[in-house]
Amino acid sequence: MTLHSKLFGAASGLVVACTAFAAQADVLFWSTQAKPVEEAQAMRDQVLAGFADVVDYQPNDGGPWITRLEAELQAGEGSIGVLGALHGDFSAMNPDDLMDLDELGVSAASDTFNSLGMLGTDSVQYVPWMQASYIMAANVEALPYLPEGADINALSYDELIAWTANVHEAQGRPLFGFPAGPNGLAHRFFQGYLYPSYTDGVVRTFASDEAVGAWEAFRELWSHTNPASTNFNILQEQLLSGDAWIVFDHTSRLAQAFNDRPEDFVAFPAPAGPTGRGFMPVLAGVAIPRTAPDMEAAQALIAYMLEPETQLATLRATNFFPVVDVEFPDDLPPSVRAAGAAVATMSASPDANPGLLPAGLGARGGDFNRVFVDAFHRIVLANQDIRTVLDDQAETLAAIMEDTGAPCWAPDAPSEGACPVE
Fold it and tell me: What is the pLDDT of residue 26?
């Protein structure tokens, strides 16, 4: 064989290979989610295999994800068809780099989520795709002690406090459980639940008069809390042991209780305060970059991702919950059915007020969390004056925000530059 023949053969093989690759990747789905090998393969085999066109699902860490996207946007053309990412990833982008999706006609069941997907513009920039969150759970033995007229799926903080007080009095011991241990997620409760519910903010309102009221309410709740909560990290353990009858935690940290004894426990949304039902969604969305090579196929894929059957398949593949109304089948684990219903009710509630995950803090994220944990230790455990503590901690918080330059995130009002502590 001549050198020319070898080169021709190699080139022909390359053409065949490229043609085959193109046929296998009609839509490139470029995602920061479902990155573990098992989840990524489940996305390909269980979720995307039912789409009309072939999808090349490629999950990546945030750095490579944004690097390739920015390169394509700068070049004015690219191969990425659909983007999958968290709200924080999209909020850091220029909305002009994303296609308006108003005419697509698909949306989440939560008007709050749909509003977030507009990224502060007048049109849909990304469509909510899937969610995870924190919820409340209770032993069924606590249900008879609910305050008269209270709806467990629409509780207020006042009703939660009254409920825990009723249980405390009837059982002779405090049975609210809170993840205040060294590896617990107490800081997420303060950032995503208590502060949005009482102050309609997190950073701007940290030391506000409304924040004083929030801590007063939590101090009252703590009086009916098992004092061993300072060692509680994963509340499914206390539910199963009976050391707590009413608890707050991440859905994944309550799963074993529901799976082991599904008849003994109920899941329900977090309570509401004066400024809404604060909750912290881990919200992922799907969008189309302006450089997508096939807009029609990309739009069709997004519509497909929002179909109820696809949402359930995504739940099985990723353990992220649907954002559209679905009927959970009986073959799902009890924990998924229970938590899924609570998450859906919470996110779609008319007074939903999401406190999003902190964004833009980089290596200072732990310092940010510590501000809230230290405030808890001083106000609740050491019984220090609330106003004094908040004023002290506000200085630390302001220094973190100025050092990182992180702009505000919901529910705080947007900021130019670092989010101010007002």
Answer: 87
**Across 238-251, average pLDDT:** 97
Burial of 1 (0-12, 13-18, 19+ CB in 10 A): exposed
What would the DSSP string read from start to end of 223-281? TTB-GGGGG-S-THHHHHHTS-SEEEEEGGGTHHHHHH-GGGEEEEPPPBBTTBEEE--
- Whether the predicted pLDDT of 21 surpasses 70: no
At a CB cut-off of 8 Å and minimum separation 6, what does 21 contact?
none
- Percent of the chain whose pLDDT exceeds 70: 94
Give CA separation, 297 vs 101, 184, 285, in Å. Answer: 13, 43, 17
Total domains in the fold of the chain? 2
Residue 275 domain-assigned (yes or no): yes
- Residue 161 · residue 217 · CB < 8 Å: yes
State how far the Cα of 272 lies from the Cα of 288, in Å rounded to an integer. 35
How many residues in the chain?
Answer: 422
CATH of residue 70's domain is 3.40.190.10
Is the model's pLDDT at 175 over the cut of 90? Answer: yes
Give the residue-averaged pLDDT of 136-163: 98
Radius of gyration (C-alpha) of the chain in whole angstroms: 24
